[in-house]
């Protein structure tokens, strides 16, 4: 706990889309955060957050109507902010989708500022109010929550359109939208620049460099020259330390920016290591170690990658991404029973380790696309393990049937309909998601991890 650096959002699985409303704002402005989804089927997993020795600067509860979660996790922070879940939704065209309402974020931050007064100045309030305004006006929520996943699927079609109409890149919503946000942030910064020491400027500077990274990321996917020079953006990001010296998420963003450029990619691991040295909340630090593992894998330092994944999982036993890496490692070693134990652990974290079809399908409807892929990969590997162990054929068939069920639930998925409602062609998007969840697609993903699957 150091001021305004680490945050936690607590919600039920059915309210994850609402939690993302706050999560993406925290991500965009440079907070180290942890999203805790209360497990309704295995209470032991809820003890993970209760036992963590780190302390968050504030905790936001989504839909904790009777205060049960706050009472249970009260030791995790001195600042608790409640948001009634129904306030985040309004009916639209017969569907439900997140409403970009300034007042929800403003009210939450008013509570936070009230608790931190007098340590926080009117300068900080002004910066956050402007960031909230931009976040809502330019629909940053949907740009971040749906951005990279939909970009990777639809980028070929967009590249073709841009090639046919030279100079149309600026007019695209994806590229032009981020450029508009950057201009708005730069205009606001220019209005503050006369005052050398302006409280809260670090969050503004972080958001600005974050947006430039998103533009460059899109350029990489289109295989065109990056708009912003990597060295220049890193230099701008480094200037955050002119305002404060403990904003360690700067190192996290520097790693992301570097990873987009071959000339700078080798620096990303050292940046992430810098991040881990300063972050003292294990539930947050777990994510940084996981990213170190990913970078180690890219440069084929397998043992160091495995070590990073183990640390990541030890810091946060709810980190199913790290746990999947451990499961895959055990699979490669032909430690079938241990691999199966880890895979079932992931399904338990996602509240899907059940034989009940109705409960399974209900829970799947609330999962984001990346989690859907993990569910399919887990069941595909479990089916393969059943074959290796000579288990009953019906066990193997059950696992492969689960893979098919995940794909069949895509168009009914409540998270997808909320967060991806802005994509130009909803049907094309769903087809892309379904394609990524086919048995062959999952098999190909596992083969890239050197994990073979039938």
Short description:
The protein has helices at residues 16-29, 47-51, 68-72, 102-116, 122-137, 140-145, 147-164, 173-192, 201-222, 230-238, 249-258, 268-278, 282-298, 302-315, 320-332, 336-349, 357-364, 369-389, 393-408, 414-419, 426-436, 439-448, and strands spanning 6-12, 32-38, 58-62, 80-83, 89-92, 95-98.
Strand order of the largest sheet: 2-1-3-4
Shape label: globular
Query: How many runs of DSSP E, i.e. beta strands?
Result: 6
Report mean pLDDT, rounded to a whole number.
87
User: Helical residue percent?
Assistant: 55-70%
* Structural class designation: alpha/beta
The ordered H/E elements are: EHEHEHEEEHHHHHHHHHHHHHHHHHHH
Structural write-up:
With 454 residues, the chain is an alpha/beta fold. The protein has helices spanning 16-29, 47-51, 68-72, 102-116, 122-137, 140-145, 147-164, 173-192, 201-222, 230-238, 249-258, 268-278, 282-298, 302-315, 320-332, 336-349, 357-364, 369-389, 393-408, 414-419, 426-436, 439-448, and strands at residues 6-12, 32-38, 58-62, 80-83, 89-92, 95-98. It has a four-stranded parallel β-sheet with strand order 2-1-3-4. Strands 5-6 form a two-stranded antiparallel ribbon. Strand 5 and strand 6 (95-98) form a beta hairpin. The longest helix has 22 residues, at 201-222. It is globular. The chain starts with 5 loop residues before the first strand and ends in a 6-residue tail after the last helix.
């Amino acid at each position: 706990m150091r001021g305004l650096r680490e945050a936690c959002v607590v919600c039920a699985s059915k309210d994850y889309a609402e939690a993302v409303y706050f999560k993406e704002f925290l991500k965009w402005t440079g907070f180290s955060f942890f999203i805790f989804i209360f497990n309704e089927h295995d209470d032991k997993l809820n003890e993970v957050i209760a036992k963590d020795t780190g302390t968050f600067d504030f905790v936001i509860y989504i839909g904790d109507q009777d205060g049960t979660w706050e009472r249970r996790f009260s030791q995790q922070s001195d600042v608790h902010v409640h948001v009634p879940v129904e306030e985040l939704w309004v009916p639209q065209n017969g569907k439900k989708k997140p409403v970009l309402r300034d007042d929800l974020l403003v009210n939450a931050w008013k509570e936070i500022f009230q608790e931190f007064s007098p340590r926080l100045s009117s300068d900080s309030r002004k910066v956050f109010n402007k960031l909230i305004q931009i976040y809502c006006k330019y629909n940053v929520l949907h740009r971040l929550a749906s951005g990279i996943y939909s970009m990777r699927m639809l980028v070929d079609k967009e590249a073709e359109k841009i090639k046919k109409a030279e100079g149309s890149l600026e007019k695209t919503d994806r590229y032009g939208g981020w450029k508009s946000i950057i201009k708005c942030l730069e205009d606001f910064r220019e209005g503050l620049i006369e005052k050398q020491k302006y409280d809260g400027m670090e969050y503004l500077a972080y958001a600005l460099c974050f947006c430039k990274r998103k533009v460059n990321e899109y350029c990489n996917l289109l295989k065109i020259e990056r708009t912003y020079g990597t060295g220049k953006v890193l230099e701008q990001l480094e200037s955050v330390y002119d305002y404060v010296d403990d904003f360690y998420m700067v190192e996290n963003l520097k790693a992301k920016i570097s990873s987009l450029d071959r000339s700078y990619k080798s620096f990303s691991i050292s940046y992430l290591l810098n991040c881990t040295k300063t972050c003292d909340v294990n539930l947050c630090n777990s994510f940084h170690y996981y990213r170190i593992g990913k970078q180690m894998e890219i440069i084929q330092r397998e043992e160091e990658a495995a070590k990073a994944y183990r640390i990541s999982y030890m810091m946060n036993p709810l980190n199913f991404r790290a746990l999947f890496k451990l499961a895959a490692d055990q699979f490669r070693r032909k430690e079938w029973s241990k691999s199966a134990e880890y895979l079932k652990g992931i399904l338990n974290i996602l509240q899907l380790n059940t034989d009940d079809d109705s409960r399974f399908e209900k829970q799947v409807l609330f999962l984001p696309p990346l989690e859907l892929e993990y569910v399919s990969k887990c069941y595909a590997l479990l089916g393969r393990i059943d074959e290796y162990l000579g288990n009953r054929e019906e066990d193997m068939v059950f696992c492969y049937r689960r893979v098919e069920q995940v794909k069949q639930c895509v168009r009914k998925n409540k998270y997808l309909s909320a967060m991806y409602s802005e994509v130009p062609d909803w049907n094309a998007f769903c087809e892309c998601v379904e394609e990524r969840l086919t048995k062959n697609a999952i098999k190909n993903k596992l083969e890239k991890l050197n994990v073979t699957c039938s």
